[in-house]
Amino acid sequence: MLLQSANAMSNNHTQKDKNLVIFMPSGRRGRVETGQSLLEAARQMGVEIESICNGRLTCGKCKVHVEEGTFPKHGIVSGSSHLTPAGDKEKELLAEMGDGCGRLSCSAYVQGDVLAFVPEESRAQKQIIRKSASELVIEIAPAIRQIYVEVDTAVLGEHQGDWRRLQTALANQEGLTDLTIDLQALRRLQTALRGGKLAGGKWAVTVIVWQERELIDVQPGYVEGIYGLAVDIGSTTIAGHLCDLRTGAVLATEAMMNPQVTYGEDLMSRISYAMTHKDGLDKMHTAVIKSLNQLAARAAKSAGLRPRQIHEAVFVGNTTMTHILLGISPVELGGAPFALANRDSMDVKARDLGLRFHSGANVHVLPSEAGHVGADNVGVLLAEEPYNQEKIVLTVDVGTNAEILLGNRDWMFSASSPTGPAFEGAQIAFGMRAAPGAIERVRIDPATKAARFRVIGEERWSDEWETEIETETEYPAHLAVGICGSGIIEVVAEMFLAGILQADGRFNPNLNHERVVWNGRKPAYILATGDQTGNGEPILVTQDDVRSIQLAKAALYAGAKLLMLRANVEKVDKIVLAGAFGSYINPQHAMILGLIPDCDLEQVYAVGNAAGDGARIALLNRNKRKEAQTVAHWVQYVETAVDPDFQNEFVGAIHLPHASDAFPHLEGMLPEAVAIVRNGRSRRRKRG
Amino acid sequence: MLLQSANAMSNNHTQKDKNLVIFMPSGRRGRVETGQSLLEAARQMGVEIESICNGRLTCGKCKVHVEEGTFPKHGIVSGSSHLTPAGDKEKELLAEMGDGCGRLSCSAYVQGDVLAFVPEESRAQKQIIRKSASELVIEIAPAIRQIYVEVDTAVLGEHQGDWRRLQTALANQEGLTDLTIDLQALRRLQTALRGGKLAGGKWAVTVIVWQERELIDVQPGYVEGIYGLAVDIGSTTIAGHLCDLRTGAVLATEAMMNPQVTYGEDLMSRISYAMTHKDGLDKMHTAVIKSLNQLAARAAKSAGLRPRQIHEAVFVGNTTMTHILLGISPVELGGAPFALANRDSMDVKARDLGLRFHSGANVHVLPSEAGHVGADNVGVLLAEEPYNQEKIVLTVDVGTNAEILLGNRDWMFSASSPTGPAFEGAQIAFGMRAAPGAIERVRIDPATKAARFRVIGEERWSDEWETEIETETEYPAHLAVGICGSGIIEVVAEMFLAGILQADGRFNPNLNHERVVWNGRKPAYILATGDQTGNGEPILVTQDDVRSIQLAKAALYAGAKLLMLRANVEKVDKIVLAGAFGSYINPQHAMILGLIPDCDLEQVYAVGNAAGDGARIALLNRNKRKEAQTVAHWVQYVETAVDPDFQNEFVGAIHLPHASDAFPHLEGMLPEAVAIVRNGRSRRRKRG
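ok -> structure tokens follow
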């Protein structure tokens, strides 16, 4: 009875003190307690407002415009202010910014219902990056190991030096001989030894040894914990996993834009930037190093570590990315014969690259296969191990470029296919990157031809949205802004399935429908209507967009077919879709569209960022580095650009689907495939 | 006849156009042609005037005060100006400096006889350093070699990478396998290869390979020339030889003060500075690196090279110096058990130390023997090779500390003796470093007790000076300013030989002479009279000075005797005096004073900077580095500080000469020894 009334009181309290706060333009809303700052409220609701000083009233970045007042449908009437008034410092800051009517969200505390508008400059929307570590079984045998060792103390009349004394102890205890010591570790050696004095008179230290040959760290006493960073440097996205090298656990995953995007969206424009600007290489190198330092700092922070605790790193990336990473000009990769400066794996001190990891940390860059098939593809090889399988596996890694692998334990071919950036949303009228508001899923009703879609940042499909601000929960967090890579694949496939497009990719001239607008000979499909978009204008899929996708998918398909021709196989047993893109396109849609050759649908897998997984594998297991080096040499690279067979296959693969006889089983099961697609769930990854 | 008259004309011309210029306070004088700048004139006469901008009228460092006019004894009478008038820019600069009557010597051109006074702030007197490479026969087999190689060009469809292609060419041509490449070289590889395109289609490059295992440089085409730097980092002086690694030739020798002197004159004060100042090590490390960069730049410049052309370096120094060089705290060397961080040799990338040599250059630091016997002593070992001799050799290297080696091919002992800095002129009333004006040679007439001496910077002995400015040639370039290390040894020995001092080191109380002043119980000998010195005050040798020398020489002698005791030998076959100091003290004086034990005078050699020679040997011959490592371990170090035998020998060696029975043959031949000494010529180095 007593308990019950306490609960009732608590409920009363909760309801009474909670105020409705709505943030525009996202429309996000929620109830917050009286006294919370608007900035805190925004964070709770997933509305990202920029703030550098974190409430210290210094940066002025968190400004919002506030429409105070009661919301009629709740019937609350209040003449009092719904926010605490601005203090002198806040007023001063706003005056400096020339803004009389704004508020700094960090200093405005909620007193009642509030509608706040977050202006463009205050938004801190980050790219949503979907690269994340998948679950792989990796044997833990990293390139570094931590050893606790007790060392004889120095005595007068014995002159071997502290480093020799430590070497002797390590030789006796671990059988380690011919060790060298990193200068930075040597500098700390004597202090560490004397800091670890034991009662028995010996010195105890914990050292870290790299590849059983170089001592890179020494700390007094018993210390536990070694950490490493595996990074996939994509043309667009840099994604890293910070790993515990004892357990293999991923402690943090961070991703960010590759800052080189400023110097060119695709590889060729970056190569050309390096070619035409004297300091081009330097700028791009510095930019990526700076980002890697930021990424490491963030990952370390979120794992409760410092970047200086990163003792080892493995980097993968396409050849242009690894060249620039190492400060090597990529210009030779820009033209035949596409000569690499170095194809083999490389160990470099992190400090020599300007990376602020541990002072003795080593960076291992996986080897490349050929001028256009880089360490990222070797990462995919390590992660998927097609070279250990009996089945013939086709692996497709679609990023800005597409790398294709075909083979099994007996033979292996690789190729790079010039898909262009259409799959990433570039060269598409309403294309955009995978950012909030991007349409990423599309379903078209074959009967009504109307589309329903899902945008990044909002869980619900568009047909569940309520676009009038009437209820608290129904207004979408983000309205549609454009179409990202996976969205463009789906919409083109769906348009084909719905009969809007013909097999040759042209809009069906016999279809007269309100969703299709004919601007003379430039037809377009209305994917999102004006009331579903942020700017009130509809989002269209044009004939040119369809052509771009046709060219890209034909290049991908032709690359795969070329390798099948070289290998003299008619059919592949298994298809692996790698890359962030591969994780979010639906295998069925990919096959409907003709991105990939015929294969049992059960045997099509999306494996996410396999390149990053490969980097992680090489980070956790040093033997895998040797394996990578061997396999990279063993894979036979096939040059697509100059091969007449490629041109042949390319032309034949332009259609949607490229040739109906390639889909005998699909032809019959299309309704079923469509049903699966409707289900909206991508299949889970399976190993083996 | 025609010829004769032409000569006559030329003579006339020469005499007519040459003007007498005298620089004060040095008194240096000479005749220069009309139109020469005063700065040029000063340089010709060895008067060092500071100049940074080198005549660009920017720095204003070269200011002099000018007494124009004719010099009566030449009978030249001239009313016109003897210098070109100052231009606007010069006037402006002088006005800025608040100096109305000065001239900038770079812009004042001689028109007649001039007397110029160089003020203190304009003087650029450098330390005169006598470390210079002696002539040793060294087999040329450096750690780096230059290889011209022709490489297959890259072709489409072949993906090994340019580095692999170069590796293949080097393996085929030179049998080099398992080569690694320095990142900096890899960055230049592709440009270099393509810059060396041959008519036949191949690529030609010249590479530099370190220790047959790492490629550190690649340049297009055929290039010849590899250079290295050997440096002896003394506590007081840093001396380096820039060598041509093809011929072994010394291209330039540079020396400078060790800038760490600011932080303490001797090793203990520097160790203590590192101990008591948080940034002490960092400051001393940075200072020495900066100086090494300056030294390298100067040496390179004087050889017509750039510092970036230094591809390899060998450094020696005492243990404190090598620790600080490597950025390792020397504090453990400051107290028992005097533990070295590392006794063994070390290879470090020059760039990791902040040395601006070639980007891939390696620095080799020779090993040490014990806490207080460092790489410099190993350098002496390499240079003198006592470990290859049948004779028992005593090697004494006197710098701020004295290192002693005793042994032959069968056994070898080493010790460090706490001589203190008296031998370097410190702790001496009128002591100074070996700089212009320092008394470095002394002879005392036993009859008159008057001294004649020679100062650094003036060839003539003081009894040939004319201290009135009457003739052009007789005024000394430098008057006496103080006494340097070799001078103090000689004067004490001479005072003893002349009967001014007794065997116990006390001033002879029975001697009543105008050259000896008795300030109560503090007698002193007048070495230079007021008219022979720069400031007009006499230079004295005090009783305390004699005591300091007695203590220092006793320490040195006791160290040598201790090793003889340990080795159980009565007599040494040969004595080698190493170090800058060893080159300038007279072996006879050293024996008279009792610095060194009894030995046939014919078998006493002064070998100059043997430590530096050892560094040069290790620079020119990589096999000597292994030899150094082996020998450094093989030598048995004897700790002097705690040995009762050392104390014993020390007390017994205080006398002058320490014990007359130790000099049975000298006793008889003293007059002869004196005669040799009078001769004033130190004996030439002999190899044997």
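Residues 1-15, 70-80, 125-135, 658-688 of chain B have pLDDT under 50 and may be disordered.
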